[in-house]
Design a protein that fits this description.
With 194 residues, the protein is α/β, with parallel strands linked by helices. It folds into 2 domains: 102 residues, Alpha/Beta hydrolase fold, catalytic domain (Rossmann fold, 3-Layer(aba) Sandwich); 62 residues, no CATH class. It is built from 8 helices and 4 strands; from the N terminus they run E-H-E-H-H-H-H-H-E-H-E-H. It has a 4-stranded parallel beta sheet with strand order 1-2-3-4, with helices on both faces. Strand 3, helix 7 and strand 4 form a beta-alpha-beta unit.
Length: 194
């Protein structure tokens, strides 16, 4: 026989975590939703367009800036044939955003920026970063630096290292250490005694 279960949600202890693009979305939510008590930006994205274009070779960057969509599409399509990482990133990005071409993915990334809204996040914030993240280089630190806080305890930045085995994008292969640090931060933030 099933019994009726009751749940209690403490409105003072609502945390939101977003991973990768979810880190961008979680930042947006925390900027505009006062009921969020803490936010974890799990490899946060500061500016999608900058994240993509900064990793492109100079000729591709220039072609994107000049609007040369044909050159960008052909070059990236050719690269995707021999570079599985580029193929995955382009295909996954296109699928996620609904873009129909690599060029549309890159130019459409201009819509994804938290530059102007980070100052609105008032709840405690944790930004995670990995030492060798090649998917969103330098984005995490920009997110952390963009968070305004009069109280240093309201924001924290954790960098995961190769020594810990947690240096890859989203700390792949090191979920135990990542989860431990997130929960330790939440316990400290909410002052939970165990």
């Amino acid at each position: 026989m099933l019994s009726k279960m009751e749940f209690h949600v403490d409105p003072k202890h609502i945390a939101l975590m977003g991973i990768i693009m979810g880190g961008y979305l979680a930042a947006r939510a925390a900027a505009f939703e006062p009921r969020i008590s803490a936010s974890i930006l799990y490899d946060g994205v500061y500016d999608g367009y900058d994240a993509i274009t900064s990793s492109l070779p100079a000729p591709l960057q220039e072609a994107v800036e000049k609007g040369n969509s044909g050159f960008v599409i052909k070059t990236l399509t050719d690269l995707m044939k021999s570079a599985p990482n580029i193929k995955f990133n382009m295909k996954h990005g296109m699928w996620t955003t609904g873009a129909t071409s690599p060029y549309e993915l890159i130019t459409g990334a201009k819509k994804y920026s938290v530059k102007e809204i980070l100052k609105n996040i008032k709840c405690p914030r944790l930004v995670l970063e990995c030492e060798k993240d090649n998917s969103f280089p330098d984005q995490h630190k920009k997110v952390y630096d963009g968070l305004v806080s009069l109280q240093p305890m309201l924001k924290k930045h954790i960098v995961f290292t190769a020594q810990e085995g947690a240096e890859e994008h989203c700390q792949s292969g090191a979920s135990a250490i990542t989860n431990q640090r997130k929960f330790d931060w939440l316990d400290e933030t909410f002052q939970i005694k165990t």
